[in-house]
TrEMBL record:
Accessory subunit of the mitochondrial membrane respiratory chain NADH dehydrogenase (Complex I), that is believed not to be involved in catalysis. Complex I functions in the transfer of electrons from NADH to the respiratory chain. The immediate electron acceptor for the enzyme is believed to be ubiquinone. Pfam families: NDUF_B7. It comes from the Eukaryota. Keywords: Disulfide bond, Electron transport, Membrane, Mitochondrion, Mitochondrion inner membrane, Respiratory chain, Transport. The keyword Disulfide bond applies. One of its GO terms (cellular component) is mitochondrial inner membrane. It comes from Piloderma croceum (strain F 1598). It is found in: Mitochondrion inner membrane; Mitochondrion intermembrane space. The keyword DNA damage does not apply. Belongs to the complex I NDUFB7 subunit family. This is NADH dehydrogenase [ubiquinone] 1 beta subcomplex subunit 7. Transmembrane segments: none annotated. It is a peripheral membrane protein.
Length: 82
Protein backbone atom coordinates (compact mmCIF):
# COMPACT_ATOMS: atom_id res chain seq x y z
CA UNK A 1 0.00 0.00 0.00
CA UNK A 2 1.73 3.21 -1.13
CA UNK A 3 1.89 6.08 1.30
CA UNK A 4 2.75 9.73 0.88
CA UNK A 5 6.43 8.93 1.42
CA UNK A 6 6.57 6.14 -1.15
CA UNK A 7 7.14 7.02 -4.80
CA UNK A 8 5.95 4.91 -7.72
CA UNK A 9 8.37 2.84 -9.75
CA UNK A 10 8.02 5.18 -12.74
CA UNK A 11 8.87 8.21 -10.58
CA UNK A 12 11.86 6.41 -9.13
CA UNK A 13 13.07 5.35 -12.55
CA UNK A 14 12.66 8.89 -13.92
CA UNK A 15 14.62 10.29 -10.95
CA UNK A 16 17.28 7.59 -11.48
CA UNK A 17 17.13 6.40 -7.87
CA UNK A 18 19.24 3.25 -7.39
CA UNK A 19 17.30 0.10 -6.56
CA UNK A 20 18.96 -0.19 -3.15
CA UNK A 21 17.43 3.17 -2.12
CA UNK A 22 13.87 2.35 -3.21
CA UNK A 23 12.17 1.87 0.14
CA UNK A 24 9.34 3.33 2.21
CA UNK A 25 10.97 6.77 2.22
CA UNK A 26 11.77 6.97 -1.48
CA UNK A 27 9.21 9.73 -2.02
CA UNK A 28 11.27 11.98 0.25
CA UNK A 29 14.55 11.02 -1.37
CA UNK A 30 13.62 12.38 -4.82
CA UNK A 31 13.23 16.04 -3.72
CA UNK A 32 16.25 15.70 -1.41
CA UNK A 33 18.47 14.55 -4.27
CA UNK A 34 17.09 17.30 -6.53
CA UNK A 35 17.94 19.89 -3.87
CA UNK A 36 21.39 18.40 -3.39
CA UNK A 37 22.14 18.56 -7.12
CA UNK A 38 20.84 22.14 -7.31
CA UNK A 39 23.02 23.26 -4.39
CA UNK A 40 26.12 21.28 -5.49
CA UNK A 41 25.89 19.05 -2.39
CA UNK A 42 26.68 21.85 0.05
CA UNK A 43 26.21 20.30 3.52
CA UNK A 44 24.39 23.32 4.97
CA UNK A 45 21.77 23.30 2.21
CA UNK A 46 18.66 21.07 2.04
CA UNK A 47 18.54 20.54 5.80
CA UNK A 48 14.74 20.38 5.96
CA UNK A 49 14.58 17.73 3.24
CA UNK A 50 17.43 15.75 4.78
CA UNK A 51 15.95 15.77 8.29
CA UNK A 52 12.57 14.70 6.92
CA UNK A 53 14.18 11.81 5.04
CA UNK A 54 16.28 10.76 8.05
CA UNK A 55 13.22 10.84 10.33
CA UNK A 56 11.33 8.66 7.87
CA UNK A 57 14.24 6.20 7.81
CA UNK A 58 14.34 6.13 11.62
CA UNK A 59 10.57 5.63 11.92
CA UNK A 60 10.74 2.81 9.38
CA UNK A 61 13.55 1.14 11.35
CA UNK A 62 11.56 1.39 14.59
CA UNK A 63 8.47 -0.05 12.89
CA UNK A 64 10.46 -3.02 11.56
CA UNK A 65 12.14 -3.60 14.94
CA UNK A 66 8.79 -3.63 16.76
CA UNK A 67 7.38 -6.05 14.21
CA UNK A 68 10.38 -8.37 14.58
CA UNK A 69 10.17 -8.18 18.37
CA UNK A 70 6.51 -9.14 18.21
CA UNK A 71 7.29 -12.11 15.93
CA UNK A 72 10.05 -13.31 18.26
CA UNK A 73 7.77 -13.00 21.28
CA UNK A 74 5.06 -15.01 19.54
CA UNK A 75 7.61 -17.70 18.66
CA UNK A 76 8.87 -17.80 22.24
CA UNK A 77 5.30 -18.09 23.55
CA UNK A 78 4.56 -20.90 21.10
CA UNK A 79 7.74 -22.75 22.10
CA UNK A 80 6.90 -22.36 25.79
CA UNK A 81 3.44 -23.84 25.25
CA UNK A 82 4.82 -27.02 23.70
Amino acid sequence: MPSSTTASQTELKAARVPIAWRDQCSGLLIPLNACRRKSFYMPWECTDERHGYEKCQYDDLMRRMKKMSKIRQEEADAAADV
